[in-house]
Amino acid sequence: MITIIEYGLGNLGSIRNMLVRSGIKCTVSGDPDVIQSASRLILPGVGHFKFAMDTLHERGLVTVIQQRVREARVPLLGICLGGQLIGRYSEEGDVAGLDLVPMDVVAFDRARLTLGEKVPHMGWTVTPHADIPLFASVQQPARYYYVHSFHFRCDDAHDEIAWAEHGYRFASGVRHGNVIGVQFHPEKSHVYGQQLLRNFAAMEFGA
Amino acid sequence: MKRIRVIPILLLAQSGMVKTERFAKPRYLGDPINAVKIFNEKRADELVLLDIEATAKGRIEFDWISDIVSEAFMPIGYGGGVASVEQAAELFKRGVEKIVVNTAAAENPNLISQIAARYGNQAVVASIDVKMNFWKKSRVYTRNGRKEAAADPVTLARACRDAGAGEIILTSIDREGTFGGYDTALLETVASAVDIPVVANGGAGAVDDFKRAVTEGKCSAVAASSMFVFAKKDEGMLISYPSEQELQDKFWSRIPRSGAGI
Q1: How crowded is the C-beta side of A181, counted as CA atoms within 13 Å?
Q2: What percent of chain A lies above the pLDDT cut of 70?
Q3: Residue A11: pLDDT over 90
Q4: A175 vs B113: CA distance, rounded Å
Q5: The CATH number of the domain covering residues in A2-202
Q6: Cβ contact B227:B215 at 8 Å
Q7: List A80, A129, A148, A151, catalytic entry
């Protein structure tokens, strides 16, 4: 059972639709007690980083998420803004994140967008990935739908698990222990994202 | 090679899917859910649903939209009758990613700002419909092409961008449903005037037209409607979407690397 964390900023309908269609049991909740007892979490999110963190604080969700992920080692998948929120810090709003993955979230460096690429990066981008269970059986070449103006910047390249190019190459997937973040939208990425979500639901997370 | 989005636009009316020509003569095409299932199977990049009766009826068919989007595992834009941020919130909750505003873009730009402030610029698409008036001037029309707006296309596009729209769907009413190709001059005028993506619409009849919308029209993405629901002009209904290979060979590979701001 996957618990999708509801805090008013996600495209929850889309994620739930995709999980239900894929035969994955899920529940949607913003109740800290429910999240406290969840065995697997998805943190969605669309919008502004600071607004999202403020909302998570207001609803008393920051501590419970951190505690469950750090102490109980509950697997968590962050999607889009949810993937950014698991970082330490974001330039969007100049605020701290959930600090579950040693990375910062930075704006696209416009000086490096030399072919007139626009921000936000919006559309389908072919996304190579590391050979890990999260991407098992995903059809190749895998492509995913992206919409974002900021991207991950990992301290340690070993945490990077997927990459995309928009003006330059950046990490679009990260994994640090039981925490995974993806910049793209698997719930809106046809069979590619469907397989990824199935893998997340089924994969084993060792320490 | 850059992938450029190819977006089917489905028109909703009469409790089903319809197709118009120059915004008139709606032809009933059946259940949109079947079409959405086919576009899903064909892995279409994105879909836009436009309820062309909603503004006049003053009502959004939320439950129907829910049913349709539950079959679509790609980004979905919805337009038609959205006049408040509460309605937008309800649509997002049901699985829509982007709200398309047309009449409201011209009549109430505040709505764009309100949706963008809460859900981000990427969640608001301004749809601008343009028709040549009697004096051969390009004019914006709202209310499904019925009412001439005060602003010209470039002025309205800039206003929508400033209000917070993340992209613009620019439709030539004169070309819509004709299969005669996009109005690339119109596209270029607007796409060059704003720094957000402009999506070409109105007139596409073949994949070659997509290329011209980007190389000549300077657009960032292409949309079409008739081309994806009819075999050919004045022929029977046939839901189709070009294959990955066809798009690569006839479209993406022919766009110079620096040719488009995507």
Answers
A1: 30
A2: 100
A3: no
A4: 35
A5: 3.40.50.880
A6: no
A7: A80
For range B66-78, the mean pLDDT? 94
Q: Across chain B, which distance is largest between two alpha carbons, in Å?
A: 45
Q: Are A49 and A81 in contact (CB under 8 A)?
A: yes
Residues in B whose CB is inside 8 Å of some CB of A read 3-5, 40, 43, 45-46, 66, 69-70, 73-75, 92-97, 118-123, 166-167, 195-197, 220-221, 257-258, 260-262
Distance from CA of B221 to the nearest CA of A (A): 9
Nearest to A28 by CA among A156, A169, A187: A187
A9 vs B69, B118, B120, CA distance in Å?
19, 9, 10
ipTM of the complex: 0.88
Work out the average pLDDT over B87-116.
92
Residues B51, A22, B119, CA angle at the centre, nearest 5°? 45
Query: What does the pLDDT read at residue A84?
Result: 98
Its CATH class, for the domain covering B6-254, is: alpha beta
Q: How far apart are CA B223 and CA B172, in angstroms?
A: 12
Quote the crossing angle between the two packed helices B153-163 and B184-191, to the nearest 10°.
40
Q: What pLDDT sits at residue B217?
A: 97
* Amino acid symbol at B3: R
Query: How many CB atoms sit inside 10 A of residue A136's CB?
Result: 13
Instruction: Work out the pLDDT band at B150, boundaries 50, 70, 90.
Output: confident
Terminal-residue alpha carbon distance, chain A? 20
Contact B158, B187 (CB under 8 A): no
Nearest CA in chain B to A50: B118
pLDDT of residue B258: 62
The tokens describing A104, both together, are 């910062």
- Confirm if A35 and A61 have CB atoms less than 8 A apart: yes
DSSP annotation of A6 reads P
Q: Are B172 and B185 spatial neighbours (Cβ–Cβ below 8 Å)?
A: no
Structure tokens at B27: 């032809």
A47 confidence band (pLDDT: 50, 70, 90): confident
Domain ranges in chain A are 2-202
Q: Closest residue of A to B256, CA-based?
A: A115
Mutation site, A11, A20, A139, interface B, largest B CB count within 10 A: A11
Contact list in A for residue B260 (CB cut-off 8 A) is 116
